[in-house]
Design a protein that fits this description.
With 276 residues, this protein is α+β, with helices and mostly antiparallel strands. It is built from eight helices and twelve strands. The longest helix has 15 residues, at 130-144. The mean pLDDT is 94. Residues 157-265 form the Pyridine nucleotide-disulphide oxidoreductase dimerisation domain.
């Protein structure tokens, strides 16, 4: 989606073909919908629930021709295949090391089936993000050097989508939380109620807080809007500390800032919201 955002911002025609029923299926459906609508308003053509049946390129033509599974045909000058990553495991081709679906299998210490051999980053297939690999590197180095054991809680890894507007999240989405817990409460605060967002003219988006209803422990946060990738770190810290929405609501946030949306979402969760 990032490349679609970049190219469409440069007035380059973009067509997205998605096999699933919506874009960015790993993120909150409401957040993904906002990004999808923004892309469409930028002129991006989006096909969902279809696959590419054929691709052809003739030497005497510059364009690439496509046929989709619904028989739609179109042509384009370039093709970007963005369906995931393939791990580069050539470094272990000559040794017997356990793999799972092509990725190097590791335990909770990030150690492989070979003692004292560790695998981090995309090759272990956990969460293929640069900051995940960095965190795994520190943990693997700690464990390899004989320090007290450290592990990584992948629920606490923040995810960022650098579209316009941006999406950031940590923990469970609303759908995942409802499928996992019987007693959750979800609170959403619109960016349009935030003073900094209003003054900057970036009112698209929201902050959504998902918490366990009895004690208010934060289970997940989803944000969509301007600069939300800069704000998700606060939510990660609260979740790492098993923080509650009440504690978040008691945390003083500077004004005017976009981060006040987190403060407001927590207060709304407690039925003490000021801005609506």
């Amino acid at each position: 989606m990032e490349f679609a955002t970049i190219f469409s911002s440069l007035d380059i025609p973009v067509t997205i073909v998605e096999l699933g029923d919506r874009l960015i299926p790993t993120e909150d459906a409401e957040a993904a919908q906002i990004v999808e609508e923004k892309l469409k308003n930028s002129g991006v053509k989006i096909f969902t629930n279809v696959s590419v049946s054929s691709v052809s390129h003739h030497s005497d033509k510059d364009d690439i021709q496509f046929t989709l599974s619904d028989h739609t045909e179109f042509s384009t000058g370039s093709l970007l295949l963005a369906t995931g990553r393939t791990p580069d495991t050539r470094v272990v081709e000559d040794v017997s090391i356990e793999k799972e679906n092509g990725f190097i299998k590791t335990n909770n210490k990030l150690e492989t089936s070979l003692p004292n051999v560790y695998a981090i980053g995309d090759v272990n297939g956990k969460i293929q993000l640069a900051h995940t690999a960095s965190a795994e590197g520190l943990i693997a180095a700690n464990n390899a050097s004989g320090e007290p054991l450290k592990t990584i809680d992948y629920r606490m890894v923040p995810k960022c989508v650098y579209t316009l507007p941006e999406i950031s999240s940590v923990g469970l989405t609303e759908e995942e939380a409802r499928n996992t817990y019987s007693n959750i409460k979800v609170q959403k605060v619109l960016y349009s109620s935030n003073g900094k967002a209003l003054s900057s003219g970036n009112t698209e988006g929201f902050v959504k807080t998902i918490a366990e209803e009895q004690f208010g422990e934060i289970l997940g946060v989803t944000m969509v809007g301007s600069h939300v990738t800069e704000m998700i770190g606060e939510s990660v810290a609260f979740m790492n500390l098993e923080g509650t929405v009440e504690e978040l609501a008691e945390t003083i946030h500077p004004h005017p800032t976009l981060s006040e949306a987190m403060f407001e979402a927590a207060n709304e969760w407690l039925n003490k919201g000021i801005h609506h």
